[in-house]
């Protein structure tokens, strides 16, 4: 028993250099996948976020919700429709998207984190429409698909947006007061209209605006893998582009690494793509020498 207690103390002590290094810094976490749906993983995520805040790290959470949106659309008799892998978002669909993201999911995450928080540290839920937090415009479809090396679809994608700007001041005020902002990826246009925006992109843009120390993507994969299926623990920009050109990085991983490179070029110190299916994956990646996923550095 004493040996076990000593081992626990040793593990805690080994985290000290990282706590010291990151004290007062900002982490932006993209929360999605199984970590959002499996109860034990949800609890693990909430505890990790609260712990980060208690040791002096400022945390912003940006969440997704694609599967939940599709389920709710079907309940309303609306068949989900995708164009080039992107959800077509007409006015009726946008209403449901905002209801699910800014309402159900956002408030559920806030309540979950607050269950594990304590005095002076609380999560607060925000839509990108609150306080002009995420200013948006209609996505430039041609530029987006061309950059990813994909065929540009002819069909209109509706209220799918891209980020024009982030209200950094609002986030800074909240974080200075001890709050953990939890952001739904819904943007606001110049006429007040809502836009559905990819959560990976919103997380990246928020991290850039805050000049975050880390941008962390929670996924349902171990990280970036090579052509042989082996996990790559560390990548730089040049290697990322080699893997994209070779067709190794593709599908859902492509927008993540593209967002990662853009974030690094705009002042974010490091990007991590980690497996959210592992309990306490954030702590394992941030507070250990080995890490568990893929880090991307400039």
Overview of the molecule:
The protein is of the alpha/beta class. It has a single domain (23-297), classed as Acetylglutamate kinase-like (Carbamate kinase, 3-Layer(aba) Sandwich), CATH 3.40.1160.10. The chain contains 11 helices and 14 strands. A hairpin with a 5-residue loop joins strand 9 (186-188) and strand 10 (194-196). Helix 3 (39-54) crosses helix 5, helix 4 (66-75) crosses helix 5 and helix 8 runs parallel beside helix 10. The N and C termini lie far apart (45 Å). 43% of the residues are buried.
Q: What is the percentage of strand-forming residues?
A: 15-25%
Instruction: Please tell me how large the radius of gyration is.
Output: 19 Å
Q: Give the number of DSSP strands.
A: 14
How much helix is in the residues?
40-55%
Helix count from the secondary structure assignment: 11
Which second-level CATH architecture applies?
3-Layer(aba) Sandwich
Structural class by helix and strand composition: alpha/beta
Cα shape? globular
Stated plainly, the CATH topology is called Carbamate kinase
As residue ranges, the low-confidence spans are none
The CATH class turns out to be Alpha Beta
Q: Please trace the helix and strand order, writing H or E for each element.
A: HHEHEHEEHEEHEHEEEHEEHHEHE
**Gap between N and C termini, in Å?**
45 Å
- Overall structural domain count: 1
CATH superfamily: Acetylglutamate kinase-like
Query: What is the topology, as strand order, of the major beta sheet?
Result: 5-8-2-1-11-13-14-12
Query: What number is the mean pLDDT?
Result: 90
Major sheet attributes: 8 strands, mixed
